[in-house]
Amino acid sequence: MTDQHSLTYKQAGVDIEAGDRFVNLIKPLVRKTFRPEVLTDLGGFGGLFRLPLKRYKDPVLVSGTDGVGTKLKVAFLMDRHDTVGIDLVAMCVNDVVVSGAEPIFFLDYLATGKLKPEKAVEIIKGIAEGCKQAGCALIGGETAEMPSIYAEGEYDLAGFVVGVVEKSKVVDGSRIKAGDALIGFASSGLHSNGYSLVRKVIFEMAGLTVHDRISDLGRPIGEELLTPTRIYVKSLLSLLRDSSLGGAIKGIAHITGGGITGNLPRILPKGCGALITRSSWEVPSIFAFLQHKGGIAEDEMYRTFNMGIGMILVVSRDQVRQLLAKARRLGEKTFLIGEIIRGPRKVSYA
After folding, report:
1. In a domain, 174, yes or no
2. 318, 211, 309, 322: which is closest to 252 by C-alpha?
3. Residues 117-157: pLDDT tens digits?
4. How far is it, in rounded angstroms, from Cα 146 to Cα 144?
5. SS3 63
6. What DSSP character marks residue 284?
7. SS3 180
8. What is the Cα–Cα distance from 190 to 213, expressed in whole angstroms?
9. CATH of the domain at 188
10. How many domains does the chain have?
11. How far apart are CA 96 and CA 101, in angstroms?
12. CB of 193 closer than 8 Å to CB of 256
C-alpha cells in the first residue's frame, strides 16, 4: 500500500496536530499556577513536585478526586466553558482541605469526541483559575480524543489533587462533643451537585431554556446554573493556622451531593448528632425556585442540595464569636446554624 492510500489516525477521528497545538496554547496558563516546588514543565510523562519536607515534622499526604457531573450539560447548552474548570478544582480541593491539608498540586483529565483546541483552552483557563484560587499547582493532565464515545461538542472532566498536612494537625472530628457549635459558610449557589434533578425540573418540568430570565434570580437561568463552586481553601487554611483560635476547629464538612443531611454525619464521632436551625441563614432563591417548580419535599431538598451552605465547621462554643469575626474578615459569609447534640450520628432540623 502506498502512502497516498494509507489510512491515518486523523481520518479515524484523532488529530494529533490539534493536540500538540492545544498543549502549546495552554502552557502559559498552566505555568501561572506553578509553585516553587514544581520541577517539570508541561508536556512530560509525569509531573514532578518536591515535597516541602522542611515545613513538616511528620507530613501526611491527603488525596482526592472528583468531576463536574451533569453541570457540564448546562455548559454545552450555553456554549460557555470557562467556569466548569473552577468547579472541577473546587470539588477536589474543598474535599482535602476539610482534613486540614493544603492542596499542593492538581492534575486534570479532559475527554472529548473531537478536540477543538480553542474550546479546550477555555476549559483549562477555568482549571488554572481554580488552582490559583486554591494555591495549588496544575502540574499535568491528560487530554483524550475518543471519537464515537462522546456526542458532538461534548466532553467530560475529572480532577485529582494531592495535599499535605502535619499529622498532629489533621482535622478528623475526633474531638467533637455535645455542645459544640456549627458554623455554616455560604455557598455561591448550587455548586456542582444535584444537576440531574436540576435539569429535570428546569428543562423538562418547567419547560425553560438556559436563556430564560427568572425575575427572582435577576439573570438568565443558565448563568445562575453555571455560577462556579466556591473554593474555601485559603480561608480555611488561614483559620486553621491562626494560633489565637487555639485549635477551635474540631471538624469540617464539605456539603456536596447528599446535602447537609448526608455529609455532616461523615465527620461526627459515635454518640454525637447535629441539630440544624433552618431559619438561621437565608436560603438563596435558586433553591426555592427549584423546590416550587419541582414540587420537591423539604427533606429531599436538604439531602440533595447544599441549600446555601457550602462548608460546615464544628467549633468550640466559647470561640464562635471570634471565629465568625475572623472568617468575615477573610471575605466569607458565615452563620451560626446549629449545635452538636448527644444521640445517633445523624442530622435533625429545627
Report:
1. no
2. 309
3. 999 999 999 999 999 999 999 999 999 999 989 999 999 99
4. 6
5. strand
6. P
7. coil
8. 17
9. 3.90.650.10
10. 2
11. 6
12. yes
